[in-house]
Specification:
The protein has 173 residues and is of the alpha+beta class. 35% of the residues lie in helices and 19% in strands. The longest helix has 22 residues, at 5-26. The radius of gyration is 36 Å and the shape is elongated.
């Protein structure tokens, strides 16, 4: 049988595992007494009933759910002291402020491009991103409310958005 590189690696790993097991049993106290102690502790946990919420306050080995319930119902819990992790300034970025996400109105202005304006008043039209939009029609939830010579106004709720022509209008006589 030929000893390949793969078999040498397996033998080395097996040897290291045996050395570790030997050190654990001889130096680090891996004895039968320790095994018996853990077996007795496991048996005690199985036979012991779960602690109630009132006893969970005093015992450190109570389940996490019981400890959390006692912490919330305790006298020292104040919800106002809970810190929201992503709302404050990041401590490792001194002097920088975390920007708020853009509003829907800002996203609307960034997303859409006013190409042309036709007419005015109640019969006005606007060409936005290649599509013709009349007054009263909606685009991405924003309703077109006014058409002016070089801009249009959209509304949603109480917020207004104004799209302006990016290229100057030239009139040929």
């Amino acid at each position: 049988m030929k000893v390949t590189r793969e078999r040498k690696i397996y033998a080395a790993v097996l040897g290291l595992a045996l050395v570790g097991l030997t050190l654990d049993l001889t130096i680090f106290g891996g004895s039968d007494e320790a095994h018996q102690d853990t077996a007795q502790a496991d048996a005690a946990l199985v036979s012991k009933p779960a602690p109630s919420v009132s006893t969970a306050i005093a015992s450190d080995d109570a389940p996490l759910a019981a400890r959390l319930a006692s912490a919330v119902n305790g006298p020292n819990f104040d919800p106002a002291t809970i810190r929201v992790p992503f709302s404050a300034q990041l401590p490792w970025l001194a002097g920088t402020q975390v920007d708020a996400p853009p509003s829907s109105a800002e996203l609307f202005v960034q997303k859409h491009n006013l190409t042309a304006v036709m007419g005015s008043g109640q019969s006005g039209y606007a060409i936005i991103d290649g599509a013709c939009v009349r007054i009263g029609r909606s685009l991405d939830g924003f309703k077109l409310t006014a058409v002016e010579a070089k801009s249009v106004t959209f509304e949603v709720g109480s917020s207004r958005v104004k799209l302006v022509l990016k290229t100057p209008v030239t009139v040929n006589d």
